[in-house]
Amino acid sequence: MLKLKFDANLETPIYKQITRSLKEEIDFGDLKGRSRLPSVTALSESNEISFVTISRAYRQLKKEGYISYTEGKGYFVCKRDNCLKILMVLNKLSSYKKYIYYSFKHALEKEAQVDLKIHHYDPSVFKSIINESLGKYDYYVIMPHFFNGADEEEYLQTFRLIPHDKLLLLDKDLPQLDDEIMAVYQDFEKDIFNALNGAEDLLQKYKKGVLIFPGWSNHPSEVILGAKSYCKENGKTFRIAHEAEMELIKKGTFFIVTKEADLAELLKLIKISNLKLGEDIGVISFNETVLKELLDITVITTDWEQMGATAGNLILNKNFKRIKNPFKLIKRGSL
């Protein structure tokens, strides 16, 4: 077990002494790059130091790029000559984003320290994050979803501050950035159109399509275009509804739902309508979850874990490609 060097009688906080000691051991090669470190609990018990103190020292070492953490595996010493520092900036936190983050880190294994920040769809917040972090990271992994109606030129100018060979776009491509960059993206309009077209055997019994797309939603507007194109090509009427609770449930309608809350409200309305789900009324929801599988709800979804893994591999291999992420419709009883 690793024996930590510290003196409890010094005025310097113990966590700082431990941090400095471990940095020296890493710098001088006593702790080899890629070697696994003891867990916080094990190190705390073996050295009779509080869990909080060890945890604080590890956090500082991780922040400075001396060690990295991989979910389910633990802490590892970074190779000082090539341990990548990566900033991932997402639009929001959600269960789907966690799949991306952890699969991205897993693909990189022990090769990188990944810091996570959220821009909340706000171009000004995004600009602040980038201005504060420029020059501090080897790669910037960005999810470029912003408020509908956001000033495109404003956020494109921020993207242009990032060297193109250090930029990777997640989930959405920006063709306006015509440099040779990395991207793992969805083609929202074509993906939705193709997914619905692939389910025409089930959708042919419905004459009307309704996309429940809240007015405050920041989902890509291309989703609307894809659903509208499908309905037009297949002779169905189409409209957009901003919330499920205001809907009149009529036989022969299929609904596409983007938000979980609207899905719950819609299922409640169908239940009290006495119409049969999957025969009289159809429902398709965005993004797969275990609950939707249990409820037998048809979903259209991208492969979030694949997106993270592909992004990690692009960086590891320095492969400057734009790659479309897999997208599929999972047919279930709700259609």
Describe it.
This is GntR family transcriptional regulator. It comes from Pedobacter frigiditerrae. Pfam families: GntR. Keywords: DNA-binding, Transcription, Transcription regulation. GO terms for molecular function: DNA binding; DNA-binding transcription factor activity. With 335 residues, the chain is α/β, with parallel strands linked by helices. The chain folds into three domains: 14-77, Winged helix-like DNA-binding domain superfamily/Winged helix DNA-binding domain (Arc Repressor Mutant, subunit A); 84-185 and 304-326, 3-Layer(aba) Sandwich (Rossmann fold); 189-286, Rossmann fold. Helix content is 38%, strand content 20%. It has twelve helices and 14 strands. The protein has helices at residues 14-27, 40-47, 51-63, 95-108, 123-133, 152-159, 188-197, 200-203, 222-233, 260-273, 290-294, 304-316, and strands at 67-70, 74-77, 84-90, 112-118, 139-142, 167-171, 182-185, 208-212, 237-241, 253-257, 281-286, 298-302, 322-324, 327-330. The chain has a six-stranded parallel β-sheet with strand order 4-3-5-6-7-13, sandwiched between helices. A six-stranded mixed β-sheet has the order 9-8-10-11-12-14, sandwiched between helices. It has a two-stranded antiparallel sheet with strand order 1-2. Helix 9 (222-233) links the parallel strand 8 (208-212) and strand 9. Helix 2 (40-47) packs across helix 3 and helix 5 (123-133) packs parallel to helix 6 (152-159). The longest helix is centred in the first third of the chain and has 14 residues, at 14-27. It is elongated, with a radius of gyration of 24 Å. It starts with 13 loop residues before the first helix and ends in a 5-residue tail after the last strand.
